[in-house]
């Protein structure tokens, strides 16, 4: 059991079945938690990917620009928080949205709070705390209302082949 782990410019990997009593923090570095790893505190970074490979985090995940991937079998208590980027200008040239991927068999207990736009991918079979479903629906509806016009919601039939029509004498016409 390790008390905590911190870095400024480097990655942190918590090995399989390892335990961290407090949190894990990085400024410009990725974090990987292997299968069976457990962090009793939270994970925090500014830049860098965060990957849980069937691990457990009890204090939530917070990032500004990092991608988050919760792989099958992961358990997260405390939710996900993506903070608004408050830096001056676009120093690193990174204007893309953080990508949040939640794979099947993941359990999330806690809020999903996004202060900035994210690309959210949630697989079937993910368990969210039931009290958070209304919040997620409200956020998805607000996002859709801001970005979709009524014509975006009109069904568009797709034609796979040209129809064959029969003439009045029973002959086929192309």
How would you portray this structure in words?
With 174 residues, the chain is mainly beta. Helices cover 9% and strands 34% of the residues. It has one helix and 20 strands. The strands form four sheets. Strands 1-4-7-10-13-16 form a six-stranded parallel beta sheet, with no helix packed on it. Strands 2-5-8-11-14-17 form a six-stranded parallel beta sheet, with no helix packed on it. The chain has a six-stranded parallel beta sheet with strand order 3-6-9-12-15-18, with no helix packed on it. A hairpin with a 5-residue loop joins strand 19 (165-166) and strand 20 (172-173). The chain is elongated, with a radius of gyration of 23 Å.
- What is the average of the pLDDT values? 85
Choose one word for the global shape: elongated
- Span between termini: 75 Å
The main pleated sheet reads as: 6 strands, parallel
For the largest beta sheet, what order do the strands appear in spatially? 1-4-7-10-13-16
Helix and strand pattern: EEEEEEEEEEEEEEEEEEHEE
Percent helix: under 10%
Q: Please tally the β strands and state the result.
A: 20
Gyration radius (Cα, Å) is 23 Å
Question: Helices and strands: which structural class?
Answer: mainly beta
Tally of DSSP helical segments: 1
Unreliable spans are none
Q: Work out the strand percent.
A: 25-35%
Topology record:
Layout: E1 5-7, E2 12-14, E3 19-20, E4 24-28, E5 31-33, E6 38-39, E7 43-47, E8 50-52, E9 56-57, E10 61-63, E11 68-70, E12 75-77, E13 80-82, E14 99-102, E15 107-109, E16 112-114, E17 119-122, E18 127-128, H1 133-147, E19 165-166, E20 172-173
Parallel strand pairs: 1-4, 2-5, 3-6, 4-7, 5-8, 6-9, 7-10, 8-11, 9-12, 10-13, 11-14, 12-15, 13-16, 14-17, 15-18
Antiparallel strand pairs: 19-20
